[in-house]
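User: I'm putting together notes for a lab meeting next week and I want to include a structural view of one of the chains we've been expressing. I don't have a solved structure, so I'd like a prediction I can at least talk through. The sequence is below, exactly as it appears in our construct file.
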Amino acid sequence: MRRLRFARLTLLAGLATGACGTPFLEMAGEGADAVFEIEPEELVAFGQASPFGSPSTQEVWLRSRGSGVVAVEEVFVDQDARGTFSLAFDPTPCLLSGEDEIPVELRFHPDAAGQFSGRVTFVARANGNEFEMTRRLAGTGCSDPNGDGQCVG
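Assistant: Thanks for the context. Below is the predicted structure for the 153-residue chain, given as structure tokens.
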């Protein structure tokens, strides 16, 4: 019986050190204090991008502080912004503990000139509570009359 328990704790400890994209069954360190931080704090600004060029990218950093574990269960871009804003990859599920941090790359690829906005939401669980944190997304599709990926004006 001790042997099985030891193997289980080893597995959870391995998953709790910033393991992302790996399914997990339960939280390690339940009851310990964990703080989940996201940077930037409010707005993810992409600036200008051409509808004909490569997507503009920005990183959002997910960080764990404290002695507990944060389980990042879902990351999604709101439905209205899909196609214009997107995730480069989905890091979930992901366990962060101690001072772990991971970048989440977001892309902005406008389909026309103009102002675009959206939201990215992070669903996480820590200290026995599930919560959502949202960041606003903003970018400008520039004028590109030549269709060569270069903004004009």
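A couple of points you could mention at the meeting. The longest strand covers residues 114-126. The chain has one helix and nine strands.

User: Perfect, that's what I needed.
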